[in-house]
Amino acid sequence: MGMRPSSAASQASPLRFGAPLAAAAVLGVLAGYPLWRLAAEALSGGGMGDALSATGVRTAAFNSLWTSAAAATLAAAAGTAVALLTERYRIRGAAALRVAMVGTLIVPPFVSAVSWQATYAPFGLLDDLTGLSGGWIDGRVGVVVVIAVNVAPLAFLVVAAALRGSRLGDVERAARAAGAADAATLRSITLPLIRPALAAAWLVGFAAALANFGVTTVLGTSAGFDTLTTRVYRAIAFSAREAAFQEAVAMALILVLLALVVIALTDSRFVSGRMTGLADPTTGRIGSMAPAPPGAAALAWGYLTLSLMLPLGGLVLRALTRAVGVSASPGNWTLANFRAVWDARTWEALGRSAALAASAALLALAVAGLLVFVSRTGNRRWGSAAAVMFAVPGTSIALAVSLGYGRWIANTAAIILVAYVAKLLVLAHRPLAGSAVSIHPDLLRAGRAAGAGPGGLLRWIVAPMLRSAIVAGAVLVFVFAVHELTMSSLLRGPGNETLAVVVLDYQQIGDPTVTAALAVVLAIVIAVVAAPLLWLRRVWGAPQ
Amino acid sequence: MTAPAVVCIGLGARFADTEALASIDLTVAPGELLAVLGPSGSGKTTLLHAIAGFVPVDGGSIEVGGRVVAEPGRSVAPEERRVGVVFQHHALWPHLSAAETVAFPLRFRDIPAAERPIEARRLLERLGIGHLADRRPDQLSGGEQQRVSLARALARRPDVFLFDEPTAHLDAPLRRALLEEIEEQRRRDATAAIYATHDATEALAIADRVLVLRKGRVVQVGPPIEIYEQPVDRWAAEMTGPASVLDAGVVAVAAGRARLTLGGVEREIDCSGIEGGVPLIRPEWVRLGGPFEAVVDGVWYRGARTEYRLDTGAGRLVVSESGRPATDVGDRVGWDVERAHLLPAAGSHPDL
């Protein structure tokens, strides 16, 4: 009838005014105040001007832009191709292909970089097996390729969701009936219609690439290749000069501004525009009537093998091998590398990472729940705030949080926790908000009519209906918190090293086999925690 | 003397700048079924939601079961009003089985936990779906879902049932079955009900009284026969069924009798409505064959009946007769009429 208010709980209550105030206060603490401090610091005393005129900064900024653009382009192409195979052609094994593609996300980017090094660089697995190796791995080419591989799953998710939700089935069938072959239909009907999603996929890839720190620090820094994120890290970690700090703050603000540009573009009509001109968007599920182009599936699996499975194999073998340079044959296998990392420091870091990640998951869920509650009348700004924080590079968030709260909680786990929650909030918010829209107001009204009060609704109707979203949100935040290297390394102090930071230390000391062993440990921890996500999908079906 | 199940006095509701309901007065007697008939956007759902407590009221008062539940500055929470709501889209909770769904309201009637499943199953069996007790909503058909929804409302033991177009999303045979079920269940407990629908045949068939709603205002209230035969204006006439209006002279000759003059032919007929109004004629008040003349300009075979549209020269006239088509488009036919209802001329205020 178009006149229903969107909530059954629209009666006056203290929640009605208190909840938005609380949400605004939480977002102010997590994002508003720290970012304001960052901007104030960067713009005071001419630090911004000095930084912009420094050659190193300009080179780093230029490198950030072109590597991100190149990686985003490669990632969008790969992600789109795989999405077409799984969603449009629905080839055999599409489910496995989806899992493998999204599974790439759970490998932390710097672990991925270490594994590519272990596989494709001189003395790597490929060198060992075939005598082939790529010196290109260390340097700009390696940086672009490995970042692309790491952000391709994001592009895949965006395009796959668009294809699945597009309901272009009848539109495609009409094109076929009009005489277009499958390829022509794809080229002239389907792809133009999902153009907004393609643009979004590129922008998501660009933002993720821009924020990348792990890959460049592993593959670029030793080859003298810097981007903004690695240059900030070096300025903070290895320099005590006030000018270096000023420069880092200025670069962090530049990263924020670039992220804001990407967000503005994402929100622009070109990208977020619905498929206008399509009279009835619900005209049947997409699904090609044609078989996939020959060899396409093999190509997709080949890509995953080369980008994910082979490097992980190389990583494990390097972790098991006595030293770099000796053949990775069973005769040279040893557990010494694992024993070497199995010390008190690793255990402590592992425990700290787990505790931090679990705390971040709980806090993020609580804040996300609050944001979903205050957004229930259709106000999307609250959720956008969380999305914006995710797009802001961790480098900038870390410096902002440090400027905002460092004088009280520097070098503690608490400061890392604030940064984690600010950055990863959206991972808890998205599933919750997505599932919450499936709770039709009538379901709540039916609960009230049946006799349940607001508390009863939350306990018996809302929470059970959101159960899978709550688990998914918690696991996502946990996994990405354990992943996290950028903020953890910038905010590190004597008492708050995380496992990822310990891995980075071994890598920078230059001990490849021990680094590999620790990276394997980290990957196993993440895989164990992430497993419930796959289980959830199976039990609950596709996300609601 | 039992209190009425529902009383609304001067009820108003606004959303932003839209007046969704304006000074609605209505009373539902114990055991009575009031159908609220109106097109979409007329405020049917808002009216039910106001009575259930889902939307705030901007003026007037509501009593349910003899207790004031809404008046200026005071509103009783939905869970403390004794209402049983059946929603258009069923509104079944996806995580609960049929039995758990029906057991849910029992929890708030302070029925001991051990007895709830037994009572829930009894209600499901009463509706003929006891064998589906363990199914979740996605394993039920539309009709089955709506029966679970009905059982949930029954479990509440409400003072009034509120039905919000419960059959709107069901196929015709299921619709009829559910409608019969609703009538039977309600009669059994003698519980009052308000039944919102946009379907006139449904409203006329099920209701003790029909309330016609338009843009948030009451147009007419009365027993089904009165609503159908004596609509207050042309809009209400068309809302309640097929209707033709002729440009013909009608002069009263006695109480309930009038003379109709058309194309030089005069006829004395049964008549109601306002003196000097325009004659409204329902299809079954007309038959083919008679002194008046017309050209057939449409024929629709509808199975049990055939519908004809005649061009009388004084407006189009819809006729409904049993059996197969008896004439073709373009034929000249005679016709006769036995009664008419005089409506106020277009634009004037209904005054009966």
Largest sheet geometry of chain A: none
Q: What is the 3D form of chain A? A: globular
N-to-C terminal Cα separation of chain B, in Å? 31 Å
List the uncertain runs of chain A: 1-12, 275-283, 539-544
CATH topology of the largest domain in chain B: Rossmann fold
Q: pLDDT average of chain B, as an integer? A: 90
Radius of gyration of chain B: 24 Å
Class from secondary-structure proportions of chain A: mainly alpha
Which regions of chain B contain 5 or more consecutive residues with pLDDT less than 50? 348-352
- Main β-sheet, spatial strand arrangement of chain B: 7-8-9-3-10-11
Give the CATH architecture of the largest domain in chain A. Orthogonal Bundle
Q: Report the mean per-residue pLDDT of chain A as an integer.
A: 85
CATH superfamily of the largest domain in chain A: MetI-like
Biggest interface and its residues per chain?
Answer: A-B, 27 and 42 residues
| Terminal CA distance of chain A | 25 Å
> Could you say how many structural domains of chain A there are in total?
2
